[in-house]
Design brief:
The chain has 6 helices and 2 strands, in the order H-E-H-H-H-H-H-E. It has helices at about 15-20, 30-40, 45-60, 65-85, 85-95, 95-105, and strands at about 25-30, 110.
């Protein structure tokens, strides 16, 4: 009996790796949850605030363009990291069974079978 396409699957990690490699399973991510999880794991707010502070300090001490560039980096880099969170987490889940289970249990990642005509 085939599993309906919209029903989430729960596969053991080794089976997930094999089926993902064969293309018999589709991985769906909740992009916002993935970004939130990765941000928390990487402690992005903790690193973003000092970078912004350094940028402001540079701008106030006469290095205006350098300070603005540092501020821009402090804003843009975390957004780029969050945007790529699903891809990064998928690659990590392929190698780490603990992360794979965490993603499934928290609803960040779902596995479904493609519909075959």
């Amino acid at each position: 009996m085939e599993t309906p396409a919209n029903t989430p699957l729960t596969l053991p990690h080794a089976e997930f790796i094999a089926e993902y490699a064969q293309g018999t399973v589709i991985v769906n991510f909740d992009a916002k949850a993935a970004a939130r999880l990765l941000s928390g794991r990487l402690l992005l707010p903790l690193f973003m605030m000092p970078v912004l502070g350094v940028g402001v300090a540079l701008a106030l001490t006469g290095w205006v363009w350098t300070g603005l560039a540092v501020i821009a980096l402090g804003i843009i880099v975390p957004k780029l990291i969050k945007r790529g969170a699903p891809h990064f987490l998928l690659q990590q889940a392929l190698g780490d069974a603990g992360l794979y289970q965490e993603l499934l249990n928290n609803g960040v990642m779902q596995l479904v079978r493609p519909v075959r005509a």
